[in-house]
UniProtKB/TrEMBL annotation:
Organism: Shewanella woodyi (strain ATCC 51908 / MS32)
The name this protein goes by in its record: 3-hydroxyacyl-CoA dehydrogenase NAD-binding
Entry-linked PANTHER family: 3-HYDROXYACYL-COA DEHYDROGENASE-RELATED (PTHR23309:SF51), 3-HYDROXYACYL-COA DEHYROGENASE (PTHR23309)
Catalytic activity: a (3S)-3-hydroxyacyl-CoA + NAD(+) = a 3-oxoacyl-CoA + NADH + H(+)
A GO molecular-function descriptor: (3S)-3-hydroxyacyl-CoA dehydrogenase (NAD+) activity
Top-level taxon: Bacteria
Length: 696
């Protein structure tokens, strides 16, 4: 046999595709090596297309498609999505693989996502290393699979399962799909390529092609479309793509469309969504997060943190302890009394128990985690700690006392961190003999759930301490953001400004419900007044009481103050901006509304009722204005970090990118005009001059 591929080794340096031919030139192995995640770029598509087209005329037994590095293809190249779609498109490559005359086998490992899974689904057989993740996460980016992945999944594993993959975007374990048409073999140990080659050799030519398009048959399965739609919409958190895709699936199912017709429709929707505002904002959020995480871990001059101390076993202390335990770190936990310590341990255990009940953890996992914790009531025990986090209540004097003790009992190289939301870390650092080792670690409540952590640089904090904390933040699976010292740092300072504008709009006659509804329809996870009720209106009230340079305006947080002064602290007293029934249900409260209206009357505020859109815009402008002020003052050095703060600290709708992205989209000129109007209408103290050109 005169096979032209004999001894050929094809290597495209730029995309890193390598072709090897083995077994008397009958088995072709295509290996993709395009770090970091083998994303399927235009160049990769073009090279693969040429390769499959040229191999089609060869006398081959089969082709094995595999990837080097940490993963099989992890998706389309998201960077390309901000430009015009580039040829060859993925459907063309996929059609070529589907039509390829001999079996194509995909050897999967790592994260087989999006276009990667679509590519694998075009193959005839799929082998996977155990624990490989398979997913169609496109909806998380505001788009849908554009190359027939959903349709092929519908055919292979049924409509219901395909909906789960494509409409929720959640990756699934390959192990769960063994012995289905999705995964033909799992590789538990040994070399994946070797085992895939042996799988190929066992294939006889009679069991060659598995054409999913010709056998497209999806009828027969009962789907409760209404409840599925409700679930999909709930999980989507305002992103439109999942429900639109579900609609498509429903149409295909009920109209019995052909594969070809259905693919055309899905491709059209994909292209339409790819250019949508939601998809652009979601891509911005994706790359902003990646950039931040990379920066946080890019430095080598960080210290090793093995053992951590936590002082305080209240709610925050428990959450913070849990973060370190979950990261597998040794923990020394200090409380003033045995009772308080036991209570903390008990709450920690209860938190884990609920995970066991839900089947997310085993009793053995719990034992392993609790083994990491050593409790004590004496500070001496903190001697081995590389880092100690103080999580006592928000009182400067209490924190100073604790820091004096920490300075005395901790080793010289230990970093001392305070978990404070507002207090002046410089004055805490000053009570120690090592102000360069003192830093703020502002966790958000509940600490083990919330992804945001502010790393607060005080006047004297050493660079390597900041770098170590940023890297630690990533290790704790959080988004660490470096900020400087000011009242509320960056996060709570912006949040306070947002709250202040909400309160002003309340005083101007916009009802509690109208404001909450406006902000939830904007996409916020909760209305701002519902949030206050949930966290306790008294918390902010007390924090403001300690604020040294309070703004002068008389109406400053008066509605909240009036609630507190009338015993309406929020959910915990069954009354706040809303009333809470015994069942926990939240209902409107005329009494609360009356309290707000009385405050407005006392202050002689002229009513100024706004549309929902105008309420949203005022709230956003307040955030943009404060964010720009924070940048001007050098509290944060990268504007995109303010978006991370809002995405991960305050439930800002991801499909809107973040408040600063929102401002940049509106444009400097428009923002300038609106801020000038507000400055004129209110005052330059509330709406100060800011450097608008930072908005980009
Ligand atoms: N397109 C372009 N770049 C991508 C990418 C994609 N689909 N997926 C990841 N990257 C880049 C990241 O931006 C990062 O770049 P950087 O090093 O310049 O910051 C790099 O690849 C590594 O990604 P990272 O997320 O840090 O690695 P990880 O091992 O933690 O996670 C993934 C890997 C693949 C699980 C994760 O990156 C991911 O979920 N990617 C998106 C997958 C996706 O949505 N695919 C469908 C696209 S339609």
């Amino acid at each position: 046999m005169n096979n032209p591929l004999c001894h050929v080794r094809y290597l495209c340096i730029e995309t890193g595709i390598q072709l090897n031919v083995t077994d008397n030139n009958t088995l072709a192995v295509i290996e993709i090596n395009s770090p970091p995640v083998n994303a399927i770029s235009q160049q990769l598509r073009a090279e693969l297309l040429i390769l499959f087209q040229s191999l089609a005329s060869q006398d081959l037994h089969s082709v094995l498609l595999t990837c080097t590095g940490r993963t099989f293809v992890a998706g389309a190249d998201i960077k390309e999505m901000d430009t015009e779609p580039l040829e060859p498109h993925l459907p063309e490559l996929i059609a070529t693989i589907v039509r390829f005359p001999k079996p194509v086998i995909a050897a999967l490992h790592g994260t087989v996502l999006g276009g990667g899974l679509e590519l694998a689904l075009a193959c005839d057989y799929r082998l996977a290393v155990s624990k490989t993740k398979l997913g169609l996460p496109e909806v998380n980016l505001g788009i849908i699979p554009g190359a027939g992945g959903t349709l092929r999944l519908m055919n292979l594993i049924g409509v219901k399962a395909a909906i789960e993959f494509a409409c929720t975007g959640k990756p699934q374990n390959a192990d769960e799909w063994l012995n289905t048409a999705l995964i033909h073999k799992l590789v538990h140990k040994g070399d994946l390529t070797e085992q895939a080659l042996s799988f190929c050799r066992q294939l006889t030519l009679t069991e060659s092609k598995q054409n999913t398009e010709a056998d497209f048959s999806i009828q027969g399965q009962y789907i409760d479309w209404d409840s599925t739609e409700k679930r999909v919409k709930r999980l989507a958190k305002g992103v439109e793509a999942p429900a639109l895709l579900l609609n498509e699936i429903k149409a295909i199912y009920s109209l019995g469309l052909s594969f070809e017709h259905a693919l055309k429709r899905q491709r059209r929707l994909f292209l339409q969504l790819r250019d949508s505002d939601q998809a652009k904002a979601l891509r911005y959020a994706f790359f902003t997060e990646k950039k931040n995480q990379k920066l946080a871990t890019s430095t080598s001059s960080t210290r090793t943190i093995n053992t951590v101390g936590v002082v305080g076993a209240g709610n925050m202390g428990v959450g913070i302890a849990r973060c370190f335990i979950d990261a597998g770190m040794d923990l020394i936990w200090i409380e003033q009394t045995e009772e308080a310590l036991l209570r903390g341990m008990d709450n920690l255990r209860k938190g884990y128990q609920s995970k066991i009940t839900k089947g997310h953890m085993t009793e053995q996992d719990l034992d392993d985690k609790m083994q990491l914790v050593k409790g004590s009531t004496v500070y001496d025990r903190l001697a081995p700690c590389d880092l100690v986090v103080e999580a006592a209540f928000e009182d400067l004097e209490v924190k100073k006392i604790i820091f004096k003790a920490l300075d005395q009992h901790c080793k010289d190289s230990a970093i001392l961190a305070t978990n404070t939301s507002y207090l002046d870390i410089n004055s805490i650092a000053k009570v120690t003999s090592r102000p360069d080792q003192v830093v703020g670690l502002h966790f958000f409540s509940p600490a083990h759930v919330m992804k945001l952590i502010e790393i607060v640089r005080a006047e004297n904090t050493a660079d390597d301490v900041i770098k170590t904390m940023l890297a630690l933040g990533v290790k704790l699976r959080k988004y660490p953001v470096e900020v400087g010292v000011c009242f509320g740092f960056a996060a709570n300072r912006m949040y306070t400004r947002y709250g202040r504008e909400i309160q002003q709009m309340l005083l101007e006659g916009n009802s509690i419900v109208a404001i909450d509804e406006a902000m939830t329809s904007f996409g916020m996870a909760m209305g701002p007044l519902t949030v206050q009720d949930l966290s306790g209106i008294d918390i902010g009230y007390q924090a403001r009481a300690k604020q040294a340079d309070k703004p002068y305006d008389l109406g400053y947080f008066r509605p909240s103050a009036s609630m507190v002064e009338n015993g309406r602290l929020g959910r915990k007293t069954q009354a706040g901006f809303y009333q809470y029934l015994a069942s926990g249900e939240k209902v409107e409260s005329q009494e609360a509304q009356l309290l707000v209206d009385n405050e407005a009357k006392k202050l002689s505020i002229i009513p100024h009722r706004l549309t929902a859109e105008a309420i949203q815009q005022r709230a956003m402008l307040a955030l943009v204005s404060e964010g720009l002020l924070i940048i001007d003052e050098g509290i944060v050095n990268d504007i995109s970090l303010l978006d991370i703060i809002w995405l991960h600290g305050y439930g800002f709708p991801r499909f809107k990118g973040g408040p600063m992205y929102w401002g940049a989209k509106l444009g400097c000129a428009d923002i300038d005009e609106k801020l000038q109007l507000l400055r004129h209408q209110y005052s330059a103290d509330i709406w100060p001059e800011v450097t608008l050109s930072n908005l980009k």
